[in-house]
Amino acid sequence: MLSTLARAATRRPLTVIGLWAAFLLLGFGLGTGVFADLSDDVPDVPGTESDLADDYLSGVDPTGESVTAVVAGEAVSDAALRDRVERTVAKVREIAGVAEVPDPYTTPGLTARDGQALIIPVTFEGGLTDEAEETATDSAVETIKRIDAPDVHVSGGELLGRQLGERAQQDVKNAELISLPVVLALLLVVFGGLRAAALPLVIAVSGIAGALLGLFAFSQVTDISVYAIQVTTMLGLGLAVDYALLTVVRFREERRHTDDVVEAVHRTVAAAGRTVLFSGLTVAVSLTGLLVFPSVFLRSMGLAVAAVVVVDMLAAVTLLPALLARFGDRIRPSKARSADEEGRVFARLARFAQRRRVAVLVTVVPVLLLLALPVSGVRIAIGDARQLPSSTEARQLYDTVDAHFPKGTGVSPVVVVLKPGTDPATADRIRALVPNAASRDLPGGNTVVELQPPGTVDGTAATGLVERVRELRGDEPVQVTGVAARLVDFRAMLADRAPWAALTVLAAVLVLLFAFTGSVLIPLRTIATTLLSLGAALGVVVWVFQDGHGAGLLGGEGLGALSLTAPPLIVSIAFGLAMDYELFILARMREARQRGNDDHEAVVTGLRRSGRVVTCAALLLAIVFGAFMTGGFSPILQIGLGLTLAVLIDATVVRMLLVPATMALLGRHAWWAPRPLRRAHDRFGLREPATREHPAPTSA
C-alpha cells in the first residue's frame, strides 16, 4: 500500500501538490466558517434527566435566551445616570423579540448595596429563529453599550458563544504567529537548511487546514465547543510537524546512499511511511475511546481530532513524498557519521539503563507515581467566568458583579419541574430546601421551582441540592435540570462509561502494536510505561490548576476543580502521542533486529537512531502547545500543560530510560508471541520489506 502511494506521488508530483493546494484553499476558505458557529455549552448529555427536562421546558416555557448587562464606575444614584439607564431600558423593551427588561432601580437585587453598580437583565421571547434572536441580541447590546458610564459590560446566552468564538479565532491566529517562526528556527537548527526546514511547515499548514475543515464539517451536524478550535488546531499543527520531521530526517539519510531522488523517496516511504501510518492509526484509535461517551461534545472532539490526525498522516505519506520528489534534489543529504558518533548521547543512556535496569526502575517509577498522586483527588466542574481571560467581556462582567454584589448573585438556580400529578407535600418539601424559592406556573399545569444554591454554580452546595431533590421526589413526576444538574449527570456518565472507553482503547492499541511488532509483551510494556507518564502529567495539572500551586505563573488561577473537558481529553490525546514516540523508537529497534543485531544492541541502535528525532519532535510539540496556552482560557491551559508534560516526560524519562531498562529485563522474550499469534502476524501483520543495511563509516 505504501509503495503504491509512493509511486503515485513520485510519478505525478505536481498533480498531488495541486490537489493538496486545492484542499488548503478549501480548508482556509470554507473551514474558517466554523468560528461563526461555536458553542460554550459543553456538559449536555443526551438522554439524561437534566437534558430531557431542559428539552421539556424549551417546549412549554414561553421565555427564551437572555443576556446580562452591568453598569458600574459611578454612583448609580446620580440623577443623570439614572435618566440614561431608564431611557435605555425603555428603548430595549421596544426592540422586536425582547420579552422582558426589568427596571434595575425598582427591582430588588439589581442595584448594588455599595451604590456603585447595577444589573440590567434582558430576556428574549421564546421560539425566535436564530436570525431573529441574533438581530434582537445585537440591537439590545448596541443600545445598552451607548450608556455613558465608565464600565458597561454585556454577555451571556447566545452572545457569550459569539464572544468566545471571536476570541478563539484570535487566539488561534496568535498561536500560529508565535509557534510557526519558533518551529522554523528550530527546524533550521536541526536540518541546517531552509528547504528541508520548510517542508514540515508545509505539512503543518495542511494539518491546520484539515483541522478547520474537519471542525466545519462536524459543526453542520453537531455543536462544536469553543475549546475544540484550540485543541484540534494545536494537535493538527504539532503532529504534522512530527510526521514531517521523521520523514525528512529519513529522506536525508537515504540521500547519503543514492543519488536517485525518486529511489530515496521510495525507501523513505517504505521505512518512515510505515511508522507514520501506524502512528497515525494508533493516535486515531486512542481517540475512539471518546466515542464511547454519549456526550455530544466528547464524541465530536474524538471524531474531529481523529479526522485531523488522518489528514496529517495522509499529508505525510502523499504530499510530502511529492514535494520531496519535486524538490528533494535541493535538500542536502545528512552528514555521514561513524557508528560511534551517531546518537552517542542516546546510546550511552540506553546502555546505562540496560546495565542499571533495576536501579532505573526503582528510582523512576516511584517518582512518576508520586507525581501522579494528586489524580486520586481530582474534581471536575463546569466552571464559571473565572476560566476566561481577564480581557474577555464575560470575565469583566463577572468580576464587576463579584466586586459589587453579594456572593452568589447571578448564579444559575437549580431548576425543578413539577409536572401534573406531583404530590403537593412533596412540592412543599422541595421548596423548603432553600429560603425564598421562586415558583412560576407554565401551560399544561406544570410548575417550575427555582432553588438558588449558595456558593458557585457547580459547587458542592449546588450539586448536593440536586441530589437532595432527587432523593425527596421518590416516584413523583419531578425532574431536575440547570447547570448543577447537568454537572451531576455528566459526572455519572463519565464514571459509567470510562471503564468501557479504556477497555476499547487498550484493546485496539494492543492489536495495532502487535501488528507493528509481532510481540505480545512489548504492547503490554508500552501501555504500562505510557500510563506512568500520563498519570504523572495529569497529577501535575491537578496540583497546579485544582490546588492552585503556581497557576498564576501560567496566566491562570486555582479554581478548586479541573474543567470537566480537561481530564478525558488529556488522557485520550496524550495516550495517542505517547504511542507516537514509542513507534518511532520501535521502528528503529525492529530494523536493527532484522539486520542481525542481538536484542540488547537492537535497543541501543533503536535509541541511537531515533533519539534525536523523538527529542526534537517532543520539543516542537511542546512549543506548539505552549503557544496555544498564551490565550489564557483555563481549560486550554489545563489541556496544554497536561499534553506538554506528558510529551516531555514520555520522550525523555520514559522512552530514554524506562524503555531500555524494561527491554533489558525482558531480554529475548520481549519479542515473544505464542505460535498461533506469530503465524497470524506473519500472514496478516502490516509490514514492509526490510530496508538494506547502510554501513556507517568507521572511526579512523
From TrEMBL:
One GO cellular component term noted in the UniProt record for this chain: plasma membrane
Domain of life: Bacteria
Record keywords: Cell membrane, Membrane, Transmembrane, Transmembrane helix
Transmembrane spans: 177-194, 201-218, 224-246, 276-297, 303-325, 358-382, 500-522, 529-546, 566-587, 613-633, 639-658
Membrane topology of this protein: Multi-pass membrane protein
Compartments where found: Cell membrane
Domain SSD: 213-326
InterPro entries on file: MMPL_dom, Mycobact_MmpL, SSD
Chief place where the protein resides: membrane
Pfam families: MMPL
Entry similarity comment: Belongs to the resistance-nodulation-cell division (RND) (TC 2.A.6) family. MmpL subfamily.
UniProt protein name: SSD domain-containing protein
Highest classification ranks of the organism: Bacteria, Bacillati, Actinomycetota, Actinomycetes, Kitasatosporales
